[in-house]
């Protein structure tokens, strides 16, 4: 589920399998899209794809083993350092990658930042127009591999945090992505049944990242759990939904606390390295698949994001997708990132 496991998997006897799965999935989604839009595949002439360094290079069919060992760099980054290429962005033919679009179609993947900070982070910076952000800002893209960027004028500091998949539903007993049936918000009440909001108003079958943040915050606010994740009644689990008897266990809380710590430490280290104080940060741009659904107060309360004023947190959702769209539509945007 994490990038290091993917690197290891791709270096073994199943080398190339991940790329095949990626390409197959993209081809399927293209097929679904052209049906909806009433288009033909050969009317698609260009694709922009962004992702973390490992996933981008796996998609391109490159050897990713150098990303898994110190100094954790893509072979394209080593080539740039050796002046063998001007930047780490790559343009390839769709045919060479097995993508089913126009036979002369092209694929552009965007430049990497450095090491595990990939072209998705580049896309995020494009989305917030980073080069014109004159006041100190923090960009946090939450995911299995959380990226943190501090910026002020022409100075940038970035970090990659191996948070793991807990807040995306992995390793949690009833955890799940933000699909129909997932609890996306919950208010914990020690005396009454909890109040829950479920995606698509279905019976709850699990809980997604935004709901997990609310759940942890609620357990702490009501003194039902201590800071170590131990329930005050000494039980091994807590039932947060009577419908389908959904529970969270101490083991689940341990995985969540490790993911939360990775997120927070990355932010704290970047801020410390910047030399700025937390109250000097003007905006915290919160990106990621479930960023728009997070209760910011609860996220700050449990230490999921830095303790900045909630009014300064700007939810920007799937900013890498927005940045990829900008790259698709603008050669100027591509050149800007390549020279960043």
TrEMBL record:
Q: Pfam families from the xrefs?
A: RACo_C_ter, Raco_middle
Which intervals hold domain RACo-like middle region? 2-129
Could you tell me which InterPro entries the record lists for this protein?
A: Corrinoid_activation_enz (IPR052911), Raco-like_middle (IPR041414), Raco-like_middle_sf (IPR042259), RACo_C (IPR027980)
- Coiled-coil regions listed in the entry: none
The RACo C-terminal domain is annotated at 137-339
Sorted alphabetically, which Gene3D superfamilies does this protein's record hold?
A: Domain of unknown function (DUF4445)
PANTHER family, per database record: IRON-SULFUR CLUSTER PROTEIN, IRON-SULFUR CLUSTER-BINDING PROTEIN-RELATED
User: What is the protein name given in its UniProt record?
Assistant: RACo C-terminal domain-containing protein
Annotated organism of origin: marine metagenome
């Amino acid at each position: 589920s994490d990038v290091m496991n993917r690197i290891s998997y791709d270096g073994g006897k199943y080398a190339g399998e991940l790329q095949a799965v990626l390409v197959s999935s993209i081809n399927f989604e293209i097929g679904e899209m052209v049906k909806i839009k009433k288009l033909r595949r050969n009317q698609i002439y260009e694709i922009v794809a962004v992702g973390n360094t490992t996933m981008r290079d796996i998609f391109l069919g490159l050897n990713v083993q150098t990303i898994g060992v110190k100094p954790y760099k893509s072979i394209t980054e080593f080539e740039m350092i050796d002046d063998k290429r001007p930047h780490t962005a790559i343009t390839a033919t769709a045919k060479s990658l097995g993508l089913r679009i126009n036979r002369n179609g092209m694929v552009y993947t965007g430049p990497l930042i450095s090491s595990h900070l990939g072209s998705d982070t580049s896309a995020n910076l494009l989305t917030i127009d980073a080069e014109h952000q004159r006041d100190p800002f923090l960009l946090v893209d939450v995911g299995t591999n959380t990226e943190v960027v501090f910026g002020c004028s022409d100075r940038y500091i970035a970090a990659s945090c191996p948070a793991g998949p807990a807040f995306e539903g992995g390793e949690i007993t009833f955890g799940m992505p933000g699909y129909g049936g997932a609890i996306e918000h919950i208010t914990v009440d020690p005396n009454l049944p909890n109040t829950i909001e479920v995606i698509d108003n279905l019976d709850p079958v699990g809980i997604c990242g935004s709901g997990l943040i609310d759940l942890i915050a609620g357990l702490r606010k009501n003194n039902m759990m201590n800071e170590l994740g131990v329930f005050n009644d000494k039980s091994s689990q807590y039932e947060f939904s009577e419908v389908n008897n959904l529970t969270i266990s101490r083991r689940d809380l341990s995985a969540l606390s490790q993911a939360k710590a990775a997120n927070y430490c990355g932010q704290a280290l970047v801020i410390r390295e910047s030399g700025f104080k937390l109250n000097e940060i003007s905006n915290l741009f919160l990106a990621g698949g479930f960023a728009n659904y997070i209760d910011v107060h609860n996220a700050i309360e449990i230490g999921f994001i830095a303790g900045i004023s909630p009014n300064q947190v700007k939810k920007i959702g799937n900013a890498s997708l927005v940045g990829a769209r900008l790259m698709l539509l603008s050669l100027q945007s591509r050149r800007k990132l390549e020279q960043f």
